[in-house]
Amino acid sequence: MTAPAAPGPAGTELAAAPGAAADVASDPVEAQGWSATVYMWLAAGTVIALAALHARGRRPLALGGDRVRWPLAPAPSLFLVAVLMMAGAAAASGAMQLSGAATPGGVRDSAIASLANYGTQLLLMSGIWWALSGALMQRAEAPVDGVAARPGSAASGRARAAAVGALAMAVAWPLTQATGVIASTVQRSVTGTDAPDTAHRTLEAMGQSGDPLWIAAMGVVAVLLAPLVEEIVYRGALQQALKGIGVPRVIALLAASALFSLAHWGSLVAGAEAGALAMLMVLGVVFGWTYERTGSLWAPFAAHATFNAANLAIFLAQR
User: Fold this and answer.
1) Over residues 237-245, mean pLDDT
2) Which structural domain, as residue segments, surrounds residue 160?
3) Neighbour count for residue 133 (Cβ, 10 Å)
């Protein structure tokens, strides 16, 4: 899952030591386990297949023309990121105090903090969109490459973008896991210590909890709320703002992905940072690529939600 990637408390990217968002899984981190070996072979096969397609001129990884129609200018976009981060953090802190917990601990506290964080951010985004709806819709519906969208094509376009996102995540899955395995192996060779079985604090709390209600609440946060907010913030506002101030597309994509990865640092279990952060960086690149390729935030949202849902399912199945 992914930790409150769009500024948040404990984080909901269940990306555990090779594995969620907020951004999950435990045994993939065991570089010597059978699962790590499987991931490495699948990743190698994926790389070979993509290289073969590129050699034949298919170029499946090319960004293509800039199809993104982000409705905000760079300055307002960066301001939006700052406001959402501060508002989400303040809401999470206030909710924790009202609930009687000083810091996020168990799954109940994590769920309360995450719901307050993402809920506040969504309300703010909805309010801003409503207040500026006329100008925003005009910019969002502007023609791309001189071609206006066909009437009635919006729904099918969103569906296609979501399908691209889910498919991209399926293809990139072994690459993310293999990246985590490699980073964890490097960490072990340098420090002499193994990464913990569970890299994400939220997953750790869920594994120790017997309350299905709060586990379900965290599942909703990880699979729906976190991907929605984080993709608007990182792939939308941040990545597009960087492009808007003259940063090359690829650099903007990589920079937004790096910040997305680092934003989850506080939600990771000590000792799991290397593998989890490496995975999150790859995930950020995948999410950013799907947005640039399709021009729709439904693509990175679907990819993000797919990743978190799969990792959550794996984690719960192993409990």
Assistant:
1) 96
2) 1-29+72-122+156-313
3) 12
